[in-house]
């Protein structure tokens, strides 16, 4: 009753950045994407739709990554946001902050940054408290 239902990860790969391919610029996608090459720019999935990004052990992303499901075995230089699930496989290397809801880390994975747990329940709700001096909202600067 109180839990938010998670979307199923995409099992189908709709887009592929092949080995030896270098992309300069931001990538916006929906569905499933696999990167075997190099991306110099942000990789962002369509909001409100389930998405899966898979980075092979040879993949390199220099920019921010923002998806619902993420499997990493390559390297990322930039902040990483996975709104539902993230798996860091044994050759994963992240140089930046990792924002996650559910995280799985295999032996050998490296994170050079902060691990920041985010919860959909806490992101969506603001609670009003009443004090003796008046009303204010939690998290506000009043």
- Total of DSSP H or I helical runs spanning 4+ residues: 1
Radius of gyration: 17 Å
The SSE string, one letter per element, is: EEEEEEEEEEEEEEEEHEE
Structural class: mainly beta
Helix content: under 10%
Give the overall shape.
globular
Strand content: over 45%
Main sheet characteristics = 10 strands, parallel
**First-to-last CA distance:** 32 Å
As for the number of domains, it is: 1
Mean pLDDT: 85
Low-confidence segments: 123-129
Describe what you observe in this structure.
The structure is a single chain. With about 140 residues, the protein is mainly beta. The chain has one domain (about 15-135). The protein is built from 1 helix and 18 strands. The strands form 3 sheets. Strands 1, 3, 4, 6, 7, 9, 11, 13, 14 and 16 form a 10-stranded parallel beta sheet that branches. The chain has a 6-stranded parallel beta sheet with strand order 2-5-8-10-12-15, with no helix packed on it. The protein has a two-stranded antiparallel ribbon with strand order 17-18.
Short description, anyone?
4% of the residues lie in helices and 50% in strands.
Element layout with pairings:
Blueprint: E1 15-17, E2 22-24, E3 27-29, E4 31-35, E5 38-40, E6 43-45, E7 51-55, E8 60-62, E9 65-72, E10 75-77, E11 80-88, E12 93-95, E13 98-100, E14 103-105, E15 110-112, E16 115-117, H1 120-124, E17 128-131, E18 134-137
Parallel strand pairs: 1-4, 2-5, 3-6, 4-7, 5-8, 6-9, 7-9, 8-10, 9-11, 10-12, 11-13, 11-14, 12-15, 13-16
Antiparallel strand pairs: 17-18
């Amino acid at each position: 009753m109180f839990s938010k239902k998670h979307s199923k990860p995409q099992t189908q790969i709709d887009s592929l950045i092949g080995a030896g391919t270098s992309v300069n610029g931001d990538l916006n996608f929906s569905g499933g994407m696999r990167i075997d090459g190099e991306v110099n720019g942000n990789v962002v999935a369509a909001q409100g739709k389930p998405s899966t990004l898979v980075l092979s052990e040879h993949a390199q992303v220099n920019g921010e990554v923002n998806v619902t499901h993420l499997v990493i075995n390559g390297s990322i230089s930039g902040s990483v946001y996975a709104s539902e699930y993230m798996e860091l496989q044994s050759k994963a290397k992240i140089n930046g902050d990792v924002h996650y809801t559910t995280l799985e880390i295999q032996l050998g994975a490296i994170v050079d940054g902060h691990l920041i747990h985010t919860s959909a329940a806490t992101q969506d709700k603001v609670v009003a408290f009443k004090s003796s001096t008046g009303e204010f909202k939690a998290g506000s600067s009043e």
